[in-house]
Amino acid sequence: MADHSRPVTGYPTNNPYPNPSTATAFPHAGPHPPPYRPPPTPRATFLRRLIAILLATFVIAGIITLITWLALRPRLPQFRVDSLSLSNLSLSPNSSLLTANWDLRFTIRNPNHKITIYYDALAASLYYKGESISDTTVPPFVLGTRDETALRATFAAVDRYVDGWVVEGISWEKTVRGSVSFNVRMAGWVRFKAGAWRGRRRFLRVYCGELPVGVSGKGGTLVGGPRRCVVGL
């Protein structure tokens, strides 16, 4: 029979209830307050509003200009070479000197029904292939709606020094083909206007290429009839 008065031996019994923590509890840290930002000054507010107004004005003006441009549908002018004559041709192969006179007659037409075209002075240059031979200027003029005008440009070269291949090329074309091809380039500022509307100035470029001049002796004229020119902005 067991003796209940004897002490119990064995492993100690674990306490199912842990001792309360002795650590000190801190309150929960909240979010930091936003940094202080001073209110904008009246000067800064005024500048912002002024910039916004200017930007809006430019955008509205651009939209109005675009709508007007699309409504009027402006078309480029048309250039046509009517004649090109050559005179006093003289070539010096040994010294690469060239002397000659050219007389260019051309017509410009405005195909627009509602737009007038204002031309500043046109700079015109005469070339043999890629070599510039002579330059001149066409005075300013105005072309009304559906109007056309005939103009003249004269070029001259007096003992002008050119590359040797230019003299050789002109001599070869004159002897073998009986004609020499030149080209004319023109450029200048133009403005389109319709009533109270004025478009901004645009730079016009004109290229009249492959203008064959039948040469006999020291002169000649354009062969093959009038030639259309390429026009671009």
From TrEMBL:
Domain Late embryogenesis abundant protein LEA-2 subgroup: 106-198
UniProt superkingdom: Eukaryota
InterPro entries xrefs: LEA_2 (IPR004864), NDR1-like (IPR044839)
Transmembrane segments: 50-72
Any one GO biological process: defense response to other organism
Any one Pfam family match given in the protein's UniProt record, by short name: LEA_2
Subcellular location: Membrane
Keyword Heme: no
Compositional bias ranges of the Low complexity kind: 11-29
Keywords: Membrane, Transmembrane, Transmembrane helix
Residue segments, region Disordered: 1-40
GO CC annotation, single: plasma membrane
Membrane topology qualifier: Single-pass membrane protein
Biased composition (Pro residues): 30-40
Name this protein carries in UniProt: Late embryogenesis abundant protein LEA-2 subgroup domain-containing protein
